[in-house]
Specification:
The complex is a heterotrimer of chains A (292), B (792) and C (157).
Chain A lengths: L4 E3 L4 H11 L3 E4 L5 H8 L5 E4 L9 E4 L1 E5 L4 H6 L1 H6 L1 H7 L5 H6 L2 H7 L7 H6 L3 E6 L2 E6 H4 E3 L2 E2 L6 E7 L7 E7 L10 E10 L2 E10 L6 E2 L1 H7 L6 H12 L14 H28 L1
Parallel strand pairs in A: 1-3, 2-3
Antiparallel strand pairs in A: 4-5, 5-10, 6-7, 6-10, 8-9, 11-12, 12-13, 13-14
Chain B lengths: L35 E7 L5 E7 L1 H5 L3 E6 L7 E2 L5 E2 L5 E2 L5 E7 L2 H10 L1 E6 L6 H4 L26 E5 L2 H7 L2 E9 L11 E6 L5 E5 L4 H14 L7 E4 L15 H13 L3 E4 L2 H6 L7 E9 L5 E13 L8 H11 L5 E10 L13 H19 L3 H7 L19 H11 L10 E11 L11 E7 L5 E5 L8 H13 L6 E4 L17 H42 L19 E4 L2 E4 L10 E2 H9 L9 E7 L18 E12 L6 E11 L6 H20 L5 E2 L2 E2 L18 E6 L21 H13 L10 H11 L1
Parallel strand pairs in B: 1-14, 12-13, 16-17, 20-21, 27-30
Antiparallel strand pairs in B: 1-7, 2-6, 2-8, 3-7, 4-5, 9-17, 10-15, 11-12, 11-14, 15-16, 18-26, 19-20, 19-25, 22-23, 23-24, 26-27, 28-29
Helix pairs in contact in B: 8-9, 9-16, 12-13, 13-14, 15-16
Chain C lengths: L2 E8 L2 E8 L4 H8 L18 E4 L2 E4 L12 E3 L13 H8 L9 H14 L5 H7 L11 H14 L1
Parallel strand pairs in C: 1-5
Antiparallel strand pairs in C: 1-2, 3-4, 3-5
The chains are: A alpha+beta (292), B alpha+beta (792), C alpha+beta (157).
């Protein structure tokens, strides 16, 4: 039978203490949209659920030099934040496409990346926004770049006794425009067949810097470094973008698979199509913001 | 004839206010005292021999009241071809085979107990492709038939064959011929309320089955037959509907879980509820029948169809439910959609180790229409005729007798095709990647004689306060019948819709009904209601003839007592001497010749009260019933016969935009034009059209149950792609009202038609847009892109 | 199984539920309070039939562990009509405009719509569709549901 103790610490210290106390018996629950589903589907639960939903200090979006997003910030908060929408547009694109309003009202950004599904909708955007993930545990605080956060499908560097506390995006990213495309068969309530995030920094018509993030393209969300390298310093032209798309779709950048939701060849096509489209959208967004 | 007061008006669904306040009681919400919860253990293999079942751990779990396996209950065959048993003893033939069942005091305990049952299997070779399954030497899904005779092949003994005219000659005579292979897959009905029932026996072993079904009387025959074989001969069965959370064809058959609930209730002597969770609803509920068609058509130089030749192969799955009978409905569009004199249709059903199928909104018609309408476009192209023009040339017309012997009475197909052309700016030159397509339909719309009785009964009873109880034999699964039938009764009886109180779905109270399926309810119940109302009205007016003079005289006496100077007016009582002289409208009885007569116009309730409370041993109540069974024909051995009183026609027109880089199809506009006879309630009618068209778009573009090696891989709403509110389809409905002479107030059925032509219209539009034809539903971006690449 | 005592505001009234700790808000509403308007259409947050409003936000009550409801305010379909039975404009509009057919999704659909109108009294069609994207309906094709919400918004102004 499904049985667990449900503990609700109201501050981080208490949460960390409980995680230490219960060790492997415990698991963290935040918004619950992944954990509760997993418990129901598998009919298995950890002995102790440590709910961090009461840690209201971890619910914030602000910009003080860097952009700082508390781990318990809900997708809905991201979606409704003007700051996110205008300056971290890809993150807006990703957060606003997760599940439904009901899910976005409770599901947190920390939960989305800790769950580490290859399809996580905020992962691609965070990859192209150079996010840094902050964690706190019995040994203190530490941080890793998001590119090092995911270690495998549903696996991250987060240790059992740690809590993810904050996601930080460097202030310099304000000079980038960004966009994310969630490719799916219908318009809502979906997991992506493929996710493509692009951020670009423009020097007139030249792409002076660029990041490309792909989800469902490998066991973890990945950056398409080779495609980025190719694009840097090139003009925002059809030829350059198409070539970047081709590189991104190749085995140099990802390891596409056939799955229930889509076939590898089709995923490659989508990367080839949407790397250029998202790059253009990102460039358009930054130029619009600049002209304001 | 004065205007209708209620019929034809958009009366709100106030009668269903419980549904917007959380009060409506669905099977989910219904509890009986002492009720237990049943749960089923399904097979872990597509084909395997059961070596052993260990239920000991489940039995020991606290709260478990019964654990049943095939060894614990009589091994009785059930189902359409009696090709399965309730709990499988020796062999499982599909992943959804029911192997064991549990009843417990709580659903969680039941679920846990099922997990504790250990079954040992020995895997057997399986077959999943119907074409493969027809070959010699492949594994047999069934070794023996229902009577124990050995089987040599996986082909079912259901020879669906239709022939009219001379195909060979017509082929020779044809100037143009087209040939296509098209296929459709499994789709789930997706009732938001999952399947469920409560089985409850009284002390004398009479059964009450609270059940999510749209064919309440259908259960009785099947369960009676089952009872006869398990020692319960002669027991009474009552089927009662809670509020039904959608149907869409799901409940035509008695499903295995219903027999299991009955067995668990028998074993425990307690009411037992089985309610599917969503996953079960996706893998253990028979979905729409998948079909592969090879269709060939020919026409002359003028574009007149000369023949249609089609062979279909149906993946029957491991057992047989109503899916295997969908060819009987496919024959209708095959033989009768557009004028075509020479027709050949053959359908072969093949056992495989896949899931089996049943009915879904349209019942075989969406599959067959996809084939016919794909072929219509191909042939139009071959003949160099515009597809709309080609359809107009071949359209059905009022008065036609089709090769299947359907007698077309009212027919608004020409108007529908023309409306679609107009609304889509059909002839306009479009941007690259855009295109238009259309498809039409024919469907039964005045009942469907698929069983020997196509009857529907209604009982009407008035109390002395003017409340009208209507005991409906049908079911209400959300189609709007409570409102529409109350409009009809109010109109026919002379009362108001708010006076009407309907009881649906109770076999103990109602007369008989063939089922709320086949788009037949408004037509059948409407005609039954009109008949019952005429009888009730006659009784009221007979009562009025007796009572109105008495009422008036008593009134005069009273007036005289109060005012001795009161002079009785000289009244012409011949105005109300006979029932025929009177009428009722808007709760008032009045003489026809003088409708506003100051004394003879009297409230209906006054007459009813006086008729009941007579005081001299002559009191009367008003009650009437009508069992309406239309003069239609069963299909004969040649599969011919006029099985419906009238037929629905309609045309879907679609404008699409195709993204050539991703293969995505966007619907820019969907025109859904339907000949409905007469719109009884325009707002509710639109709801039927919108809903059906939307489901049709899902059928065309997104929905598929992914079955891999017999297993349903996407048994959830996340991966089964039913459309959301964000998937906007701009629908423009067109209502054509030719007034059907046999329909109640001119109406025809409209429940299914909106779905039928939608998918082929989309496919045709895609072809028009990008020059590739997707002949395999759904039209996914992958298929479009692949086809584009192959085309180069 | 350990029981917990959870106090919260339900449809404006202070209540306390004594239920197993592992129950969800949905199960508590349906089994403990016998408020069966919210339905379990899937149990995993994919269909929206269980939607209720918690502290002003639409949520899937099937995914909400009951301990999280402590001290919160929950509104369900049962609390929407006036005490005298007067329907809320959304309920009225759903009846008038055929926003309800089988009715199974309706409680959730109306609660999602209410959460929207409480926040945005004058929503665009797109905003309405976004608000109910997590509420599946098989009967209506959503057209008349969207129209019903628009109608209610006008009525509420």
């Amino acid at each position: 039978m499904i049985d667990y103790d449900y503990l609700r610490p109201d501050n981080l210290e208490e949460a960390l203490r409980l995680l230490k106390e219960y060790g492997p018996k415990a698991a963290i629950i935040a918004g619950g949209t992944d954990v509760m589903v997993k418990i129901r589907n598998t009919r298995k639960a950890p002995e102790v659920l440590v709910s961090i939903r009461g840690l209201n200090d971890l619910r914030y979006i602000d910009k003080a030099g860097d952009y700082r997003i508390g781990a318990l910030t809900t997708h809905r908060m991201l979606e409704e934040s003007d700051l996110v929408k205008t300056e971290l547009s890809a993150l807006y694109d990703g957060a606003s496409k997760v599940g439904s309003v009901q899910v976005r009202n409770v599901a947190t950004i920390g939960g989305n990346i800790c769950n580490a599904a290859p399809s996580a909708d905020t992962a691609g955007p965070l990859l192209v926004l150079d996010a840094v993930v902050f964690m706190e545990g019995p040994d203190g605080k530490r941080s890793v770049p998001i590119t090092e956060f995911f270690t495998g499908t549903y696996r991250t560097v987060l240790k059992r006794e740690e809590v993810l506390t904050e996601i930080r995006i460097p202030g310099e990213m304000e000079e980038f425009g960004s966009a994310y495309w969630k490719h799916s068969r219908r318009k809502a309530m979906n997991l992506p067949i493929l996710g493509i995030a692009v951020s670009v920094k423009m020097d007139d018509q030249i792409i002076s810097d660029v990041r490309i993030g792909l989800t469902v393209a490998a066991p973890t969300p990945v950056r398409a470094y080779k495609a980025e390298d190719f694009l840097k310093g090139r003009p925002l032209s059809d030829e350059a973008l198409s070539e970047a798309g081709r590189i991104a779709a190749s085995t140099e950048c990802c390891s596409l698979r056939d799955s229930l939701r889509g076939e590898a060849w089709y995923r490659a096509e989508i990367i080839e199509t949407y790397v250029p489209r998202m790059a253009r959208l990102a460039a358009e967004r930054i130029s619009k913001r600049r002209s304001k | 004839m004065p205007d209708n007061l209620f019929v034809g008006k958009s009366i709100p669904r106030t009668i269903e206010a419980d549904k917007v306040t959380g009060k409506a009681v669905y099977i989910d919400d219904l509890k009986r005292p002492g009720m237990l919860y049943g749960k089923i253990l399904y097979s872990s293999h597509a084909h395997a021999r059961i070596k052993s079942i260990d239920t000991s751990r489940a039995e020991r779990l606290e709260g478990v009241r019964a654990v049943l396996t095939g060894r614990d209950i009589p091994d009785v065959r059930v189902g359409f071809l009696k090709d399965q048993t309730v709990l499988k003893r020796d062999v499982v033939r599909q992943y959804r085979d029911e192997v064991a069942a549990v009843a417990a005091i709580d659903p969680d305990i039941a679920a846990e107990a099922v997990r504790l049952i250990k079954v040992e299997y020995e895997q057997l070779p399986a077959v999943f492709d119907p074409y493969e399954a027809m070959k010699e030497g492949v594994p047999l899904v069934h070794e023996v038939d229902a009577r124990g005779r050995p089987l040599k092949s996986n082909i079912l003994p259901l020879p669906w064959k239709f022939k009219a005219g001379d195909i060979d000659q017509a082929r020779e005579d044809s100037a143009f011929i087209s040939k296509d292979r098209v296929s459709t897959t499994w789709v789930n009905q997706c009732c938001m309320g999952t399947s469920g029932c409560i089985a409850e026996f009284d002390q004398n072993n009479n059964l009450t089955l609270y059940d999510q079904t749209n064919v309440i009387f259908g259960h009785i025959g099947r369960i009676t037959e089952y009872f006869e074989q398990i020692g319960l001969r002669g027991k009474k069965i009552r089927v009662v509907n809670p509020v039904v959370g959608g149907s869409f064809g799901t409940k035509l058959d008695t499903d295995i879980y219903e027999f299991i609930a009955i067995q668990l209730a028998l074993k425990t002597r307690k009411p037992v509820k089985i309610l599917f969770d969503r996953e079960e609803e996706f893998f253990a509920l028979p979905p729409r029948q998948p079909t592969v068609f090879t269709i060939e058509q020919g026409c002359d130089r003028e574009g007149r169809l000369l023949f249609r030749h089609c062979e279909a192969v149906l993946d029957n799955g491991a057992y047989t439910s109503w899916g295997a009978t969908t060819p009987s409905v496919m024959i209708m569009p095959m033989s009768s959609l557009y004028r075509v004199p020479n027709v050949y249709f053959k359908a072969t059903c093949v056992y495989t180790n896949n899931i089996y199928a049943q009915a879904m909104r349209g019942y075989g018609n969406p599959q067959a229409t996809f084939a016919v309408e794909t072929s219509m476009d191909s042939l139009a192209e071959a003949a160099g005729i515009d597809p709309a023009e080609f359809r107009l040339i071949n359209r059905n017309r009022p008065g036609d007798h089709t090769p299947m012997n359907l007698k077309i009475t009212s027919c608004g197909l020409e108007e529908c095709i023309t409306a679609v052309k107009e609304k889509l700016d059909w002839d306009e030159k479009r941007e690259e990647g855009r295109g238009v397509g259309m498809a039409s339909l024919i469907h039964v719309a005045g009942g469907a004689r698929v069983t020997k009785s196509d009857g529907h009964g209604i009982m009407i009873k008035l109390d002395e306060y003017g409340h009208v109880d209507v005991i409906e034999s049908g079911t209400d699964q959300g189609q709007g019948s409570p409102t529409v039938i109350s409009q009809i009764v109010a109109e026919a009886l002379g009362v108001r819709p708010e006076d009407i109180f309907l009881t649906f779905g109770d076999t103990a109270l109602a007369l008989w009904d063939a089922g709320t399926h086949a788009s037949r309810h408004t037509f059948m119940a409407g005609n039954a209601a009109i008949g019952a109302c005429a009888k009730a009205k006659r009784q009221i007016l007979e009562m009025a003839v007796e009572q109105i003079p008495k009422i008036i005289k008593r009134d005069f006496k009273r007036k005289k007592r109060k005012d001795p100077g009161f002079v009785e007016p000289d009244l012409d009582f011949t105005l109300i001497a006979n029932p025929e002289d009177l009428d009722i409208r808007d709760r008032m009885i009045f003489p026809k010749k003088d409708p506003d007569h100051p004394y003879f116009k009297i409230p209906l309730t006054q007459v009813l009260r006086n008729g009941l409370h007579v005081g001299i041993g002559q009191s009367k109540v008003v009650v009437a019933e009508e069992f309406y069974d239309p003069p239609t024909e069963m299909l004969n051995w040649e599969m011919k016969g006029n099985l419906s009183m009238t037929y629905a026609f309609g045309t879907s027109g679609v404008e699409v935009e195709v993204d050539k880089e991703t293969g995505e199809v966007k619907i820019l506009k969907l025109v859904s034009a339907h000949d409905v006879g007469k719109a009884m309630n325009p707002t509710l009618l639109l709801g039927q059209i919108y809903g059906a068209a939307y489901t049709g778009v899902g059928y065309g573009l997104t929905e598929e149950i992914k079955v891999r090696n017999g297993r349903v891989m996407n048994p959830n709403f996340r991966d089964y792609q039913m459309l959301t509110a964000m998937d906007v389809v701009p629908i423009e409905p067109v209502i054509v009202e030719p007034m059907d002479e046999d329909g109640p107030f001119g109406a025809k059925g409209v429940g299914e038609p909106g779905l039928v032509p939608t998918a082929p219209a989309i496919a045709n539009a895609v072809y028009n847009a990008i020059g590739v034809r997707i002949t395999d539903l759904p039209i996914t971006p992958e298929k479009v892109l692949k086809a584009l690449k192959e085309k180069g | 199984m350990k029981k917990v005592s959870i106090s919260f505001t339900l449809n404006g009234n202070s209540v306390t539920a004594e239920v197993p700790e592992t129950w969800t808000l949905l199960k508590t509403l349906r089994e403990y309070f016998e408020l069966t308007g919210a339905k379990e259409g899937c149990g995993v947050g994919e269909c929206g039939a269980c939607t209720v409003i918690m502290d002003g936000q639409a949520i899937n009550s099937c995914l909400c562990p009951i301990p999280e409801v402590e001290g919160r305010s929950v509104d369900t379909i049962e609390g929407l009509a006036g005490e005298d039975g007067t329907l809320h404009p959304l309920q009225d509009a759903f009846l008038k405009n055929n926003g309800v057919q089988c009715g199974y999704c309706t409680s959730g659909m109306i609660m999602s719509s209410k959460a929207l109108l409480d926040q945005k009294p004058d929503p665009t069609e797109e905003e309405i569709r976004t608000a109910i994207a997590g509420n599946f309906c098989r009967c209506t094709g959503y057209v008349q549901i969207v129209e019903s919400v628009e109608m209610a918004a006008k009525e509420l102004k």
